[in-house]
Amino acid sequence: MYLLDQYRGTCLSCRYTIPPRFVSPESRTQLEETMKVAVVDTIMRHPMLQVGVIDATSKTPSWIQLQSLDLTQHIKWLHIGEHDDFEQTVQETFRAQLDDSFPDLSLKQPGWKITVIRQGNAPIMELLLTWNHPHFDGAGAKVFHEDFLERLNSAGNGAYERTGLDGDILRLPQAPPLLPTPLESVKSLPVDLKYLVKAFWEDIRPQFLNRDISYAAWCPIRSSPYKTQFRAFFLDNTSLLAILTLCRQNKTTITGLLNGLALIAFSSHLDNTFAPAFQSSTVMDHRRNLPPPPLDAPWARSDRAVGNYVTQLPHRFDADLVARIRSKLPADASEGKDLSADLQRELWAASAQNRLEIVRKLEDGLRNDIVGLFKYVTDWQQTMSDMAKKKRQFTWLVTNIGVLDGTTSTGNDTKSDDGQSWSIGRAQFGLSAEIPAAAIEFAPVSVAGRGMCVSANWPDCAVDVMLGERIMADLERWLVQLARQS
Predict the structure, then answer these.
(1) Which phi and psi (to 5°) does residue 278 adopt?
(2) Among the residues of 69-153, which ranges form H helices?
(3) What mean pLDDT is reported for the chain?
(4) N or C: which end of the chain has fewer CB within 10 A?
(5) % of the chain at pLDDT higher than 70
(6) How far apart are CA 304 and CA 186, in angstroms?
(7) φ, ψ for residue 441 (rounded to 5)?
(8) In angstroms, what CA-CA distances link 382 with 53, 310, 386?
(9) Cβ atoms within 10 A of the Cβ of 24, count?
């Protein structure tokens, strides 16, 4: 997708609280050195941060061991003035990072970078981790931030030396890196004949034979001009806890709830003529299904692997369900109104069903999973190019990377509550537009005890900005409503 300009980058941004000893102007150099060494330690824990891609444009690209990393190519500081708008700068930088291209892959640099934004001598900073998805997924980025936080809190009262680090050049080990084993290699991926035949037919059938009314025919796939539209909103922890209580009472989760809310929002803003039914997709992290890593793996536990371990689970919302929801919408739903009692019953029913489908998929493991079909793909560039010529399948997607631990324990309890520790107060997760994927992609992330951010992205060339903003406004208004009612 990256080579075809169907996707560019993914970003997980965290707001760090800086310990007082690093806040003063005199401590800036010490702060930056401590940060750099903590990044190095995180790199050494996760080999996928150490490798480049060779033969990227071929049918069989592969990872290549690198001799060293120039950290000036991976860590950038953005210092802004006291009178600048910090939040505006963060959001503008975040949006720009999503659409930035990485250096030519032939340069053999790992596809990730860090941008640190700090205003004057403020006791907070924003750290944006942006990466090329072949290196790792969103859950891997969450692990990066948590491990980086742990290293910061293990650094003591100042910067310290790191073997292999000479100025900004990190010399990497000569031994081949032990990379996390790909999902398709560590787990059996059985594919039933019926599932295989269906997938093959969907791949080769002429588009005029695709009569599935749940496809997103209302949003034809367009590839250019490439631009990501990105929006986000935040919920405080009190509201999040109230919503989680409602989710438990109604046998669902935040992921299920967002799928349910999106169903009502799209039913409200799209006419029955163009969208009589819908399909959505949920990104699922399968680290829980992995075997233990090798004993010498530096990441120690399978759930701490920085790699790609996600698949997608499709959901279908049939015409009868969508018609029933539309019949309960207010006369002028475009004005933005609260959910009625009838719509809330539909919401919780759909959200619970969505969670049930996810649970069943987790119980079934990776049988009849799309990853099991990858072994039949001989040319990914051609496959993705062909996909962009077909009818769009999904109206929306939800990729929830869960809860980030913003107060990672280092075993040194003396600093945990005295304001001398590094911590993370909030996070924001976002994807660049994925041209042939869902029309709008929702990406929630929470920080334990600190609230949740919900973001959305869509391709500017395919989705009307007003529609995207109205969908996001609905989700935010209804989540606030649910929190208030709880």
Answers:
(1) -140, 160
(2) 86-99, 138-153
(3) 89
(4) C
(5) 93
(6) 16
(7) -115, 125
(8) 19, 22, 6
(9) 11
d(CA 278, CA 292): 38
Q: At what angle do helices 341-364 and 319-327 cross, to 10 degrees?
A: 150
Q: Provide DSSP, 158-220.
A: S----TTEETTEEEPPSSPP-PPPPHHHHS-----HHHHHHHHHHHHS-GGG---TTS-TTS-
Q: Cα–Cα distance between 322 and 306 in angstroms, integer?
A: 39
pLDDT at residue 194 in the model? 82
Does residue 97 have a pLDDT over 50? yes
Residue 458 contacts residue 433 (beta carbons within 8 Å) = yes
Tokens in use for 486? Answer: 């709880």
**N- to C-terminal Cα distance for the chain?**
42
Q: Output the pTM of the full model.
A: 0.93
Q: Residue 270: is it exposed, middle or buried by C-beta count within 10 angstroms (0-12/13-18/19+)?
A: buried
Contact status, residue 379 vs residue 59, Cβ threshold 8 Å: yes
Positive or negative: CA dihedral 163, 166, 167, 169: negative
With H, G, I as helix, E, B as strand and everything else as coil, classify residue 43: helix
**Could you tell me where the DSSP H helices lie in 250-289?**
254-269
Cis peptide before 225 (omega within 30 of 0): yes
* Confidence at residue 59, expressed as pLDDT on a 0 to 100 scale: 77
* 3-class secondary-structure state, position 336: coil
* CA within 13 Å, CB half, 210: 16
Cβ neighbours of residue 16 closer than 8 Å, sequence gap 6 or more? 124, 125, 126, 127, 149, 152, 422, 423, 424, 425
Closest CA to 93 of 102, 105, 85: 85
- Write out the H or E segment, with its range, that includes residue 317: strand 310-317
Mean pLDDT computed over 157-163: 56
Strands 423-431 and 310-317: unpaired
Contacts 24+ apart (CB under 8 A), 194-202: 195/368, 196/373, 199/370, 199/373
